[in-house]
Amino acid sequence: MTDSVTARHLTTDAVFLPEVDDVLAAAERIEPYIHRTPILPSQTLGRLTNTRLGLKAEHLQRTGSFKARGAVNAVLRLSPEQRARGIVTMSAGNHGQGLAYAASLVGVRCVVFMPETAVPTKVAAIAGYGAECLFAPSMERLFSAMDSFRTAHDLHYVHPFADADVITGQGTVGLEILADVPDVEAVVVSTGGGGLLAGIALAVKALRPDVRVIGVEPEGAAAVSRSLAAGYPVTLDRIDTVADGLAAPFGAELTQAIIAEHADDVVLVSDDEIVAALRLVVERTKQVVEPAGAAAVAALLTGRVGLAAGTKTVATLSGGNIDGERLKRLL
């Protein structure tokens, strides 16, 4: 590729922040390969959250989550040398599906490391796109297993969230929200490693700095909020959440820098609150989402986001990759 990510130096550790122009370029680059997802109104959820609410339906995205956006952007930006080497990543499942799909578009070898507890339908989908599925005993041990394999096989690592091209690809969600709801006042974002939150905050704040952008994490996987509080990326000793799609084992400098600069807040929700929100989304909107996809709605239902009554709000339904048996148990 001849174009390069516009960046500005942030720290002596050589962290570079992408700009909104990179998000705009990503939107043009990935447009042929992704869905333009709708924003679904919900009067019932709006009444329950005391907002004028729309739901950004990224569970209807290709591969079943927003992750396809960043993955496609990152793969299309690979150098010829990186394509020839092949790519590797770590994922609870959604990023793996997105990257496997993206790799299949250009014929690049793709290896995805997942925890042994990964949702079977996510594993099957990754394999269905032609990627190689390998496993580690837990999310906490996923990176070390993946990194050892990467070194041994000289593969190019595509980070699941702390990659400028992944972040700017995810930021296209923010561009679509602004285009479809020009009077939006708040965007509430399900947050795992922080790639979606960073991308949306980067795009939205550049174009509409008055709009509040709030991230939502599970209490049992709070890598982003803990990293913000510490002032450096934190690695979690233990992960315990029903929202496997938000179970990032660590924070990262790039995402943390963008979130610290552009996001207004990151709030926590319990697993019980996530499951209650999932039930309401399924029952009242007839949309099937996974627990991670319901986290933003959960924060609104609890009032933890702290919005004024009647705020024009968009919440992300970030993914819908859940098997029928697990959905039945949660409902």
Entry keywords:
Rossmann fold; disordered N terminus; four-stranded parallel beta sheet; alpha/beta
What's the gist of this structure?
With 331 residues, this protein is of the alpha/beta class. The protein contains 15 helices and 12 strands.
Structure in words:
The protein is of the alpha/beta class and 331 residues long. It folds into two domains: 7-65 and 164-330, Rossmann fold (3-Layer(aba) Sandwich); 68-157, Rossmann fold (3-Layer(aba) Sandwich). The protein is built from 15 helices and twelve strands. The protein has helices spanning 20-30, 43-49, 67-76, 80-85, 94-106, 120-128, 142-153, 164-170, 172-180, 195-207, 223-230, 253-262, 271-285, 295-302, 324-330, and strands spanning 7-9, 16-18, 39-41, 51-57, 87-90, 110-115, 132-136, 156-157, 186-190, 212-218, 265-269, 311-317. Helix 6 links the parallel strand 6 (110-115) and strand 7 (132-136). The longest helix has 15 residues, at 271-285. It starts with 6 loop residues before the first strand and ends with a helix.
CATH class of the largest domain: Alpha Beta
What about the largest sheet? 6 strands, mixed
What's the CATH topology name of the largest domain? Rossmann fold
Going by helix content, strand content and strand pairing, the class is alpha/beta
Bin the helical content. Answer: 40-55%
The neighbouring-strand order within the major sheet is 3-4-12-9-10-11
Q: Give unreliable regions as ranges.
A: 1-14
What is the tally of helical segments? 15
Tell me the CATH architecture of the largest domain.
Answer: 3-Layer(aba) Sandwich
| Mean residue pLDDT | 93
Task: Give the radius of gyration.
Answer: 18 Å
Distance between the termini: 47 Å
Order of helices and strands: EEHEHEHHEHEHEHEHHEHEHHEHHEH
Strand content: 15-25%
Q: What overall form do the CA principal axes indicate?
A: globular
Can you count the beta strands? Answer: 12
Number of separate structural domains: 2
